[in-house]
């Protein structure tokens, strides 16, 4: 498996810290609302990466957090007249449901910030003791000047960075680039700490949860959206380097952003698309296929036609698989199929090439073409049809596409033979009626 490493700017061969095992952490959502389609893209991308790694034989420990402490959560709770946990529990379940709808597996571990507070406070204290952080009033800031390699992930020099939209400006900080580790507050959920009653800064939470869950300061893969590269992931690395002299992860993987009809998706433009609405309209397979047939690092432009085109493509794939499956069942073919090794190798070569899902999709369409040819041959080669069908099923599983194919009952078989007999006897009324019922049963 070769992956583009955002930290080095190169496509590199993945070399796990522990042979045969991959540790992967993906920054999860702040749970104050339902997931929009931008939230869904990393769900799909990193679930696909996990499936591809597993197809290569790796055991993957996949962790993704829930940020359940945030000003937006506190605001939502106050507006509802409830507590923060009621809000976050509701939307954590919404995210879990979106994963299920998109055929994505739940992470092996999903830590919450509120359940990691003791570790976060201890971590901040260690940074202060090390001199990499300092207290200002009831707040604590990370001292960016303590990390001589700050900016290596985003490939920026600290001296070139200016206070702006992504950098918190404050008169109490030593340096405008210094960022909050702990902030004193009298609003919403808060905890006692050696500095004040308050809550942690966002950039500290993930680095602590990684070390808490994995039990080590260096993992194989850290992922998330391109918008997290700076300052969030840059700041995670800085904190980890200050205490452990590591870059937190050997490979940093970032997925591209989403546009709607060529425009950046944003609340201010009123073009936010909710994942649940798209799934209800088009289905999870279609939504996933739209996202996975564009390379994960490229921007993804969404519009109605993209979903309609994806629906047509998936219907062609499913129809070929359904027809082949029905033919095998009618022929009572029961031998365990082998993979079509040539196609499978082409598919996995594409997936191993920095998760090149567009090329992998091209192999799937080639397999569909061969399956149609084999299923329509005058003499059925059951081994070949079964092999192509199994190969397609395996490839689609890695891509996260799951089809339910019909399992013929005795009644289905009897209807099929009655239809064929009516066609042969040119009893067209009977044949048409049988055909219509077979279509209704999803057999034709």
Q: Which secondary-structure class do the elements indicate? A: alpha/beta
Give the topology string: H per helix, E per strand: EEEHEHHHEEEEEHEHEEEHHEHHHHHH
Approximate strand percentage: 5-15%
Overall strand count? 14
The description of the largest β-sheet is: 5 strands, antiparallel
Q: How many helical elements?
A: 14
Physical arrangement of strands within the biggest beta sheet? 5-6-7-9-8
Tell me the helix content.
40-55%
Radius of gyration: 26 Å
Alpha-carbon distance between the two ends:
40 Å
List low-confidence stretches: none
Provide an overview of this structure.
With 444 residues, the protein is of the alpha/beta class. It has 14 helices and 14 strands. The chain has helices spanning 37-55, 71-80, 84-101, 117-130, 202-214, 229-244, 275-282, 284-292, 304-330, 341-352, 357-375, 382-399, 410-424, 428-440; strands spanning 2-5, 10-13, 21-26, 59-64, 133-136, 139-142, 179-184, 191-192, 197-200, 219-225, 249-255, 258-260, 263-264, 300-302. Strand 12 (258-260) and strand 13 (263-264) form a beta hairpin. Helix 8 crosses helix 9 (304-330) and helix 13 (410-424) runs antiparallel to helix 14.
Keywords:
444 residues; alpha/beta; five-stranded antiparallel sheet; four-stranded parallel sheet; 14 strands
């Amino acid at each position: 498996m070769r992956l583009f490493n955002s930290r080095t700017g190169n496509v590199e061969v993945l070399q796990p810290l522990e042979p045969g095992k991959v540790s992967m952490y993906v920054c999860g959502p702040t749970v104050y609302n339902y997931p929009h389609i931008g939230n869904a893209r990393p769900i799909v991308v990193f679930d696909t990466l996990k499936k591809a790694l597993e197809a290569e034989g790796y055991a993957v420990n996949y962790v993704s957090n829930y940020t359940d402490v945030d000003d937006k959560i506190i605001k939502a709770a106050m507006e509802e007249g409830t507590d923060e946990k009621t809000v976050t529990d509701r939307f954590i379940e919404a995210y879990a449901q979106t994963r299920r709808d998109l055929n994505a597996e739940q992470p092996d571990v999903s830590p919450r910030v509120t359940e990691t507070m003791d570790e976060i406070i201890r971590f901040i204290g260690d940074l202060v003791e090390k001199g990499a952080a300092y207290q200002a009033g009831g707040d604590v800031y990370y001292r960016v000047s303590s990390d001589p390699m700050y900016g290596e992930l985003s490939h920026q020099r600290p001296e070139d960075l200016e206070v702006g939209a992504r950098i918190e400006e404050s008169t109490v900080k030593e340096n405008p680039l210094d960022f909050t580790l702990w902030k004193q507050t009298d609003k919403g959920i808060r905890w006692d700490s050696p500095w004040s009653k308050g809550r942690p800064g966002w950039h500290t939470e993930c680095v602590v949860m990684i070390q808490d869950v994995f039990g080590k300061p260096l993992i194989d893969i850290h992922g998330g959206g391109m918008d997290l590269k700076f300052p969030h992931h840059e700041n995670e690395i800085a904190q980890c380097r200050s205490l452990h002299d590591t870059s937190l992860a050997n490979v940093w993987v970032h997925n591209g952003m989403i546009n709607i009809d060529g425009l950046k998706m944003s609340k201010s433009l009123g073009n936010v698309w909710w994942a649940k609405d798209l799934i209800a309209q088009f289905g999870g397979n279609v939504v996933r296929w739209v996202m996975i047939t564009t390379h994960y690092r490229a921007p993804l432009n969404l519009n109605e036609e993209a979903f309609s085109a994806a629906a047509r493509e998936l219907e062609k794939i499913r129809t070929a698989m359904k027809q082949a499956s029905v033919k095998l069942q009618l022929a009572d073919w029961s031998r365990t199929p082998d993979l079509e090794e040539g196609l499978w190798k082409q598919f996995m070569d594409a997936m191993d090439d920095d998760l090149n899902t567009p090329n992998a999709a091209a192999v799937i369409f080639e397999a569909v073409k061969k399956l149609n040819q084999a299923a329509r041959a005058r003499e059925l080669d059951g081994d070949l049809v079964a092999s192509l069908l199994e190969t397609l099923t395996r490839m689609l599983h890695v891509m996260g596409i799951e089809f339910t194919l019909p399992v013929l009952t005795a009644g289905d078989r009897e209807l099929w033979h009655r239809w064929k007999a009516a066609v042969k006897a040119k009893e067209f009324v009977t044949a048409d009626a049988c055909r219509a019922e077979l279509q209704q049963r999803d057999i034709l």
